[in-house]
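Weekly structure sync, notes
Attendees: PL (lead), two postdocs, one rotation student
Agenda item 3: pending single-chain targets
PL asked that the sequence for the first pending target be pasted directly into the notes so everyone works from the same version. It is reproduced below exactly as submitted, 78 residues in total.
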Amino acid sequence: MTLNIISAKEIVFTGEVNSVTLPGAMGEFTVLNNHAALIAVLTSGRVRYTDTTGTEHTADIPGGIADVDNNVVSVCVY
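Predicted structure, written out during the meeting:
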């Protein structure tokens, strides 16, 4: 699936990943391939994602919104 992490100033990350764990307002949640469509409010915290080689990466965010649809996870940060 494709992960896009963007802010008003820059593209933080864009690429293919196997999983994404996000700091949701109702608690942390993980998105895997073929996940149901959703929109979620994100709190400040750490986005963790595993790339296609199995390496885990992180990105700290101040909060934002996540949109999951058709194997594309778009994270818009404040």
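Discussion points:
- Residues 2-77 form a domain with the ATP Synthase; domain 1 fold (CATH 2.60.15.10).
- The chain has one domain: 2-77.
Action: rotation student to compare against the earlier draft before next sync.
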